[in-house]
Amino acid sequence: MRFLRIVLALAVIGVGAGLWLTAPQVIEAADLPDHDPDPAHGEQVFIAAGCASCHAAEEAEGEARLILSGGRAFASDFGTFYAPNVSMNSEHGIGDWSEAEFLTAIRHGVSPGGQHYYPAFPYTTYARAGIADLRDLWAYMQTLPADATPSRAHDVGFPFSIRRALGGWKLLFSDDDWVMQGADLSPQVMRGRYLVEALGHCGECHTPRNALGALDHGNWLSGAPNPSGDGRIPGITPDALGWSADDIANYLNDGFTPEFDSAGGSMVEVIANTSQLPAEDRTAIAAYLRALPASE
Amino acid sequence: MRLISRTMLLAAALTLPLAATVQGQSDTPYERHLNARQGYMDVLAFNIGTLGGMARGNIDYDAEAAQTAADNLAAMSGVNTRPFWPEGSDNAALGDATRALPAIWEDPEGFGEAWMAYRTAASDMAEAAGGGLDALRGAMGPLGSSCGSCHEDFRQSDD
Q1: Contact B145 A272 (CB under 8 A)
Q2: pLDDT tens-digit profile of B108-140?
Q3: Per-residue pLDDT tens digits for B14-54
Q4: pLDDT for res B1
Q5: Is the distance from CB of A155 to CB of A80 less than 8 angstroms?
Q6: Sign of CA pseudo-dihedral A36, A40, A46, A48
Q7: How many domains does chain B have?
Q8: CB contact set of A231 (below 8 Å; sequence gap of 6+)
Q9: Which of A183, A216, B69, B94 is most buried by its number of CB atoms within 10 A?
Q10: Do A81 and A156 form a contact (C-beta atoms < 8 A)?
């Protein structure tokens, strides 16, 4: 009898601890220091973070890439995810969000209603982004047009449909430390690290994932199966790519390989972004990639 | 008509030696078609290499060489390559011998539009390339985008 009661008590504690541990993390407005928002800098963050590549409508080009109506499909082993509307429409987009709710969504993957987002939204990567950058991004996104397209529900089966379980996933796999460590990194490599590991979220495609869909940091940027099911996404470590720093920076600008073949597939969207970055940022990305260890 | 047959001839002349270097795909019924397509793309890459090398500052700008490369591209873009693309010659049917996606035949209108965008970009480059390095650089972005937007949807993105 006494034993049963202990088991019961432990079970209650266990569930309680589980609920507490998997509870969504939130950024409060009161915790944020004063900040003078700079939407022009926010536009640079928007470009570097590739927001339009997922949240603009399929095939949108030019100015239309600033209408963040969502709808693109992302196939995965867990189901198909649809990018939501993140335009300034208050009913279907994020127009009525507060700044703190926006920061919570980006850095912790938690909705204003306290729900965990699926990590198809790369918040585990964006958690490395600077708060000041994200506040400028928010200021910039508020200047973008509203669109009333409703977001499409994700097509995800049981058990992945239990969002609370994502709290456990986050506990296991959230890690906002830099993947490339080292006390003697040059300012240029550190800038490249920020662009690759935080804003650019390159690892989301170029790094393989484990059985639960988390990035395998031990094989960072060493190439991965294509989540769409076709072919492989290439490794971009120095040995896998074999390109000079200039080759990389030029590719990110004009979209041509050293042999003047053109970029294809999803990289076309990426180059639509990187070609708009300052040249120093492309050079910094190249310096970072050249500083990576060889793939195993 | 005369112009078309001349550009065809030019394309054939440019394509032939390169097509011969492409690895054999003798296990497919479309070996000649794949060779023609891939040779065609090699000719583009050769000429874009001249223009891109100058735009990147890897080779010195030379108005005459730039104009020649751009004229070649414009002439190539005028070639009617439709016979190179018979139905059934996609990578779902032929495997690794080609990276041509079935989307080419499922969405012929989209493929045609992408091809037309490349023609426009190539003819704009032919206007610009001889007019100085800045003009060449200005035309390089749209040319690269036209290659990319077609390869985004219609070519398998294997490394």
Answers
A1: yes
A2: 999 999 999 999 999 999 999 999 999 999 999
A3: 554 444 444 444 567 899 999 999 999 999 999 999 999 99
A4: 43
A5: yes
A6: negative
A7: 1
A8: B156, B157, B158
A9: B69
A10: yes
**A127 and A167 assigned to the same domain:** yes
- With contacts defined as CB-CB under 8 Å, which chain B residues touch A268? 148-149, 151-152
Separation of alpha carbons A73 and A153, rounded Å: 11
State the Cα–Cα distance between residues B35 and B27, nearest whole angstrom. 13
Its ipTM equals 0.79
Q: How far apart are CA A18 and CA A121, in angstroms?
A: 24
Instruction: Specify if A4 maps to a domain.
Output: no
> Using a CB-CB distance cutoff of 8 angstroms, which residues of chain B are in contact with residue A260?
45-46, 48-49, 52
Q: Which residues pair with A155 in a beta bridge?
A: A80
B131 touches chain A (CB under 8 A): no
The answer to the question of residue B159 being in a domain is no
pLDDT of residue A60: 87
Q: Whose structure tokens read 């990389």?
A: A248
Question: Could you report the per-residue pLDDT of A216-268, keeping only the tens digit for each?
Answer: 999 999 999 987 777 789 999 999 999 999 999 999 999 999 999 999 988 99
> What radius of gyration, in Å, describes the C-alpha atoms of chain A?
20
H runs (alpha helix) in B22-96: 31-55, 63-77, 91-94
Supply the mean pLDDT for chain B: 87
Domain residues for the domain of B59 are 2-154
Mean residue pLDDT across chain A: 92
- pLDDT value of residue A189: 98
Question: In the numeric block, which tokens belong to residue A270?
Answer: 């990426």
Task: Give the closest-approach CA distance of B148 to chain A in angstroms.
Answer: 5
pLDDT at A198 over 50: yes
Q: For residue A48, give its domain range.
A: 32-173
Domain shared by A158 and A253, yes or no: no
